[in-house]
Queue: 4 jobs
Job 1
Amino acid sequence: MFVLGIDPGLTRCGYGVVSRNGRHLEAVAAGVLRTDPAAELAARLAEVHREIVALVSEYEPDEVAVERVLFQVNVQTAMQTGQASGVAMAAAAAAGCPVTLYSPNEVKSAVAGWGGADKDQVEQMVRGQLGLTKPLRPVDAADAIAVALCHLAMLPPARRVAKAGTR
Amino acid sequence: MFVLGIDPGLTRCGYGVVSRNGRHLEAVAAGVLRTDPAAELAARLAEVHREIVALVSEYEPDEVAVERVLFQVNVQTAMQTGQASGVAMAAAAAAGCPVTLYSPNEVKSAVAGWGGADKDQVEQMVRGQLGLTKPLRPVDAADAIAVALCHLAMLPPARRVAKAGTR
């Protein structure tokens, strides 16, 4: 099965597509969607929507996992990140993909074994699971793959098995 | 010119289309988009997006005005409202409509004369400007029309004149 993981953001939105065939995990695609911070908010959100529609159309993920946006110090940034995650969720759901949200701690726990893991530890564990020797860059893409791996780890076996037969 | 005003919300999203021809203001459409609180967040956001796409396609507004989402007591609600506004903005921008945000205080000041006006006062002033004798219901629709009227009041004259000729 294919899972599209999204690390939402308005200026930088990470994405990663992970396929699983039995025990074999593979990163099919990973990257960062960028929008121009100087452009208007609505236009930037429309761009994120268009890009996620294109990703879902290209990779046809079975499921989509999105990192939940928490309120940090900067409320304005949190709102814009939340809006970017909202348009990404809307694009995925409109294409018929089930969408699941995970908190940053859930992602770190699932991938690195504990919720306090830093970005480097997460990136190393992601590489380990995927058998990659080179660093995963940019870091937003590694985070997005971690979200996809988290979803694969959290899925009930029945759902994994049922879906796995389709690819 | 036609302005689509949006009072964003996930469970209830108010909309109102106001046309202005010279000094004549008219409410062309007003209503509330509802999504099922029991449905999944991504599906609800996709529905808001689909409905706004349909509204923009039907009424072809020249501009879209959206009430800015502020952080209230309930952070979770503020985030979901912000996400609903995000997908609405994305849908409008994708259709080529300029999108402008106004704070609740800006809307109240423009329509009722002061930022502390309550919902009833705003609704009465909206009716007065549109020459309506019956109450505007539901209240989310009246709020959305207020956002559209605020935008018409705030637009620079040159932009109003230039656009007015097209309708």
Job 2
Amino acid sequence: MAAVGIKKVREILAARPDRHNTSLADRRAAMDAMGGRGKLPPNVDLKVMELGGIGCECIATKGVTQTNSILYVHGGAYVAGSPRSHRGLGIVLSEEVGAPVFMLDYGLAPECPFPAAVLDVVSAYREMRQRPDEFGAIALVGDSAGGGALISALTVLRDAGDPLPSAVACISPWLDLSCSFDSYTRLADTDPFLSKSGLLQDASLYLAGADPKNPLASPVYADLTGLPPMLIQVGSEEVLIDEINTFVDAGKLAGCHITLQVWPDMIHVFHAFRALLPDAVAATSQLAEFINSKFE
Amino acid sequence: MAAVGIKKVREILAARPDRHNTSLADRRAAMDAMGGRGKLPPNVDLKVMELGGIGCECIATKGVTQTNSILYVHGGAYVAGSPRSHRGLGIVLSEEVGAPVFMLDYGLAPECPFPAAVLDVVSAYREMRQRPDEFGAIALVGDSAGGGALISALTVLRDAGDPLPSAVACISPWLDLSCSFDSYTRLADTDPFLSKSGLLQDASLYLAGADPKNPLASPVYADLTGLPPMLIQVGSEEVLIDEINTFVDAGKLAGCHITLQVWPDMIHVFHAFRALLPDAVAATSQLAEFINSKFE
């Protein structure tokens, strides 16, 4: 079953238009359309609001039973993605964790260059911490570029002496904007989603001249001391696997509690393909369990 | 003061990129950006929801005192615009009328061709009518293409025997997709917003082969008997002025109560430029007063 599912997913991804023929506005629109305009399930309350001056969408399913909160940082290579593109994942997380999910509408490059995404996460998180009666314990969750941005935000918060979140979970985080690790070439033909050349283009829009190895842009090069308990889920077939393994090793050496799950045969942010991949359902459940174990 | 304001607005519009060099995705993104991502005033509750299976955003300011409702149909030539692009106008309407405003996220062309926009308005309105305890009396308000779509929707509802809304208000409605009236050429150099060639392009995307003089696409050619009390506000300088005058005459001959306000020196949907145009503030106030007089 899993083999059939991933084959179908690979067919879908292979049929996408070539990114070199696609404007950034088209890429953003296509990604938002994945979130399904006007397809809101009836059990979902969805509120547009602000956190720390940054737009966000609060997703609360009827299954919400607790006062704790998830702050979600979407992916899209720092140049695309939105609360709308990732709405489906947010709805599932709200249901499975039983908590509201705040999908951050952080600024995208090139309009908002480095380190705007990181600072937007910091601002939103700080406002949530300032209102504990409203938000309770906080889990910080993100995928791809959002995973990288949230880890950089954690280092900013740690250095500033802010209290850190109760739990952190990253799906396929992008941790090296210099794209230097061997898996970018070793898995180039295996990864149907990401390419080194495409990621370097997106990175240069975001960095706007900053050093790609600046630890605030590429947290695989950051000091990870004192970060909170973290779950990382990654597909074995994606070009990010080497930087994620290196990050996990560095984190453990620095004394962090990091759980790494490498899902065989799975690809970048495979959680997005729930209808086709049983592993997507299983991984999201395990992510929700991890968060709930830290909320207790 | 008004002269200074409209001069500044004209300068802003003249500086826009040429539409022939702009992809549809870029036009949509630019229009959405006008709505101001992440700039939600603190007194606004904004909920994403569905009405009749169509996505919409419900705007409710702290000033909401009544249980009546406004269904808003945004403009954008049937190919652009969204609840986000028109959020500012929705917030002001909610404040001034004291009612929640439901900004309909109807399907755009070319993805959703004629008569999708009209049928989406019908679906949303019918769901609101089916839940009178929740929505109360309903006003239908729209601008530009949204004004045309809502008038077509009214003719569908009338023909089907549905109860009609308590009040209808249109800002610069686009009522002739064949762009046949004299003002398209007479005011071509005066109107800084709309051009006949651009509108004909957008119309062909929406019509997808349908007759531009089909009354459901171009309600200036429709039977207007039995439509509810209506306020129409238009700028004297816009290319739509002739079809709007013709529509008002036809409506009055058919026995409708239509109030037409032609605002001197003003342009297409001038309500969007509140910060620069005192007339924008005045016109929106009068529109709100009209709705409230029908809610009583």
Job 3
Amino acid sequence: MSLNGGLVWALTQAVGPAHVLTDGDLSAFEVDWRKRWFGKALAVVRPGSTAEVAAVVQACKAHGTCLVPQGGNTGLVGASGPDASGTQVVLSLGRMNRVRGIDAANLTMTVDAGCVLQAVQEAAAAQGLLFPLSLAAEGSCTIGGNLATNAGGTQVLRFGNARELCLGLEVVTADGDVWDGLSGLRKDNTGYDLRDLFIGSEGTLGIITGATLKLYPQPAAVTTALAAVPSMGSAVGLLQLAQARLGPGLTGFEVMGEFALGLVRKHFPQLPQPLPPAPWTVLLEQSDCESAEHATALFEALLEAALERGLITDAAVAASTQQSNNLWHLRESIPLAQSLEGLNIKHDISVPVSKIPAFVAATDAALERAFPGVRLVDFGHLGDGNLHYNVQAPMGQAAADFLRDCEKAVNAIVYDAVCAQGGSISAEHGIGMLKRDELVKRKSPVALQMMRAIKQALDPAGRLNPGRVLQTD
Amino acid sequence: MSLNGGLVWALTQAVGPAHVLTDGDLSAFEVDWRKRWFGKALAVVRPGSTAEVAAVVQACKAHGTCLVPQGGNTGLVGASGPDASGTQVVLSLGRMNRVRGIDAANLTMTVDAGCVLQAVQEAAAAQGLLFPLSLAAEGSCTIGGNLATNAGGTQVLRFGNARELCLGLEVVTADGDVWDGLSGLRKDNTGYDLRDLFIGSEGTLGIITGATLKLYPQPAAVTTALAAVPSMGSAVGLLQLAQARLGPGLTGFEVMGEFALGLVRKHFPQLPQPLPPAPWTVLLEQSDCESAEHATALFEALLEAALERGLITDAAVAASTQQSNNLWHLRESIPLAQSLEGLNIKHDISVPVSKIPAFVAATDAALERAFPGVRLVDFGHLGDGNLHYNVQAPMGQAAADFLRDCEKAVNAIVYDAVCAQGGSISAEHGIGMLKRDELVKRKSPVALQMMRAIKQALDPAGRLNPGRVLQTD
């Protein structure tokens, strides 16, 4: 029996032969959905319980084999698939998709890591409660992956990232021990914050197998408005005004550049755009615990005040849920419209909200100087200081050529500008393999040294998701 | 020159002779304010800058000397003073009390760790903004201490603990390096969450020297109400109703047992108590971004609905800021009233909110069986599942005798009940020396092992606040 044969036999013992995949088309587990990384797994293992995850980790430990934990495999940075060596085991959490329980009076729910985000939202909604994490991949990403990458999305302004929505974790350690940290407590000061260390560590420190999540009462009404703003400075001014007027009722504040909305007009002409083109368009969302009428009245008063102050030039308040959905649909169509326009160089950056206008002005100008005619697809979560500041080839230049020839230089300009404003090169997508080398250049050496010490402390053999986040030695 | 003499000389070089205290009455730095731990420092060092903190740590490293970081020295668990050996240096951050900057458009402020909490609140208020962390010691505790202990307080229900209010940290490591993690970003997924590892680590992993904090718009109105409830189950029902009706406008939900409010009546008869005695009394606070009238109308509708459902038997809405302050003053007088009544055995526990009624019923009964006539001073932050479940000697029994003879048995009953409900033995005060041994008994061995590995990774020589949180080997 070969060495791999021994491991496969042990994995089969751990999870049953039906759940150890070594043959056939495994590309759903081996290739990321954007098809940037083509890996080859030694085996794909699909445990059905936390105990089985622990058994898989122990088997891999005994054979000195590395593990790549995987949820919905919807990540954007190459953190959830195997490398091309054929020596790594993919541990897919997809079969662990049970809602373990909902505690309505405590406003918590406990779920398996493999639950699809949308299923988590729906289980909460079935009890009249809200799990607010929301992002484009919610129909296929898993809550374990959301936590492993500290996912962001559209509701961060009010509810925080995945990190802020999690009270407790269950984790299988590199040694195959189970840490039951599934606490439903809002206050617990008994030692170091292990929970937040695993959240955002992209499967490199332990394998999240379950989580206790925060829930909220469902709002009585959710409504949206669209506002045309003359400049990014005005957009920031509108944000301040909206935060003061609506307080925590302001649950969304998305900005869309004119070129980005123009791509939606071009590729999806059937989508209504209620406002005429403006340099920037803002989508505001308000969640109200009283009524739709109350929300609309607050919105109208806010937008009137913004008009008076010259912060906006035009606005439209959605008159129905259908109209609200249409406004969100506009925003959500930008990524698809830009794909239809051609490949582009994507960024997921954040700077302090107050620095966004200066960042955009300086970076737009620097890119235009370096690449005359370059087209900028700017949009994102302005309320969180997070822009998807994407760069498209000048009209007429082949997108693939532009990517091949210019990506490095474009990234250098963008990341230099981000760092000059005290920003982050990965606001919500993580590091994975994609930004690992950039991280070494951009992160403080003191921080990197502490990160390496922590990796060494919790996974000394380096068997968990090697080469992600940190370079393998 | 003695070994200590060499160190003191080096410390003098680092911070100037005026800021190295070795003589005279140093009890303000050596004894905790509740006078439970009487320590003796080798020296008290008061650096004036982050660079000086780093120089102090390097000097102590060179001499193999342990350091005890100290803020306002208001902690409750023996984490901020030296032991009695006379070999530990107290590093007091009190001179580092500068507000480094406020970024109103980003809703952040950056401060030195030694800023007193109240000064932080006031600096925010001066810009029309709110820093919501609020607790009894706010006039003398420091923000660095608040972060090192992940302080809670009265606004956690809406705004979270100190952890949730911090975006970035500056930390001096055990090696005397400075980590500049002073980010004002709401989204930053570039590697492991070092920030949250230091928050709540009680100075055992590094020394917090600065922080970037989240601010909020000031609400237009803050108002309070008092409600008499027949049972703890009704109090939890009222909380659910209030959360659904007021949403994030509900910023405080404190519960007070009849015996606790009775002590206030007895020792502070001049304080008005607007409601007749009831088994439990709840203090609700609402922060409104519209107006006082709007807040009052919402409160009245809520309390009417609660009356109709039998959740409350009586209620009073404060008609002025003065009346609101009076209601808070009632709540805040409980700790002093119980001190005047005599020593008692204090707890700072949390359980899921839904489990509070069962916890209180079972624990009250178990204590009464073990100690007939025992008096329970129950009050706390019900909205967070956090009770200060304090135990007073039966009437007529000397408090000191009761403490001496019964504390261990009382704690065993309380902590067994807490753990049976999935709770925490330290909700907001931390571990320090006080609960270190209890932690070993109550925390999962897997968690303890990870905590020890992290301590070893970041402070291998064990020089930072030794013997706190974790036993020194």
Job 4
Amino acid sequence: MLLSVIQTDPQFGDVSANIQQAVSLMEGKRADLYVLPELFASGYNFMDRSELDQYAEPATGPTFELIARFAAAYSCYVVYGFPERADRIYNSSALVGPSGLVGTYRKVHLFYRETTMFAPGDLGFPVFDLPFGRVGMMICFDWIYPEAARSLTLRGARLILHPSNLVLPHCPDAMVTRCLENRIFTATANRIGREDRGGTDLSFIGRSEIVSPRGEIMTRLGETTAGAGVAKVDLSLADDSLNRYNRLLADRRPEHYKG
Amino acid sequence: MLLSVIQTDPQFGDVSANIQQAVSLMEGKRADLYVLPELFASGYNFMDRSELDQYAEPATGPTFELIARFAAAYSCYVVYGFPERADRIYNSSALVGPSGLVGTYRKVHLFYRETTMFAPGDLGFPVFDLPFGRVGMMICFDWIYPEAARSLTLRGARLILHPSNLVLPHCPDAMVTRCLENRIFTATANRIGREDRGGTDLSFIGRSEIVSPRGEIMTRLGETTAGAGVAKVDLSLADDSLNRYNRLLADRRPEHYKG
């Protein structure tokens, strides 16, 4: 399968243009499964909860409609981040395929001012079976908690789809560790640009990437330009056999773990 | 406190010379706490269990006696790896101070042919209170299991002492992730050189290092030379407060973790 991470340069609040940029980048480089950034259509740096409320939409809202049309037209899958209006407002991602919504994930570990605006995710770390294999999602700051990728791996995910709006420098290299310690693929789609709003000035670091179970960086984009990174991946290579004596997951010893 | 990682070039089976090299390197650069490599006195690449049996010694055996004399003479602490003779033979590390043995750790995750010779550790991941703060130990391949460092962190360790005999290239960079995700210090003492014995040819990668809770590499040695790396560390900086909204450990959400 061809896997793609789409690195965009969203302008806060310019929803139509932001979606159009993502669609153009996807159309420019065909793939079977695309990952877009966190909150890719709305932008990230909401002033407060009432501003966030203006942009929140249901999982099958207008952004979904546009992406679902794309996925149907090109017979592909797309994962993207959006502010989800439900019982509360969540920082969510949706996995959409040719036949519509496959599933959603609600960010479990909220970062910084997100904690004042979004509700913490209440769905745990679900996995989904696609024609290519089993996948799961996490969003941005979830990377720093090894339990996120581990939980998905122990539920059988062979690929983690990771919409992000990274501002700290560490995640791209840390994802190599996530792949090695779980023997899975990861696809981190980040954004570039800057949002200086309401006294909070955030710059996003780009460096979207796809990493293999052996920790190889299969594609990694730059820090300042939008674009698409594509890698051909075979999810059956996400196998926990390290050598003839060690199976990474089977050799875990949970009776000695605290957590 | 001054923390030191000692990178040695042991020759298989030459126990006296291997200990002497470690002691010379420690004497050459004074510190409050030294970390030596895994199995630093015996060498690593045992042909089989009966050869291992010749080198195994109790936690208070002759290697301990020499190291304890050093720790008493210089009022310091030393951590080192050794093949521990007990009810079975374990791949262990000892923490020794001016007054003698503080505690031991038995490697929980055995690597490659170790699985055919050593018994898997049965003590879990204990922690120990030193004058500088609380510490824990893990050995070499334990690095690939995030549960090892996490378990120590959740028990209050602010520094992980990590005797190693690394052959794979990934650990030095992965330890940066271990520090970031736990907000702790780590000290990895590795060896250099090669052991080609009984059809198994192993080369060790050096790169011993000390890493801070912010993921800074405070010292990192080379791949081919023995030596000592020293860093001044303040364990009170191992604090889980990331910013005014996030506390790394307090923000964990175990109800959503599988493990």
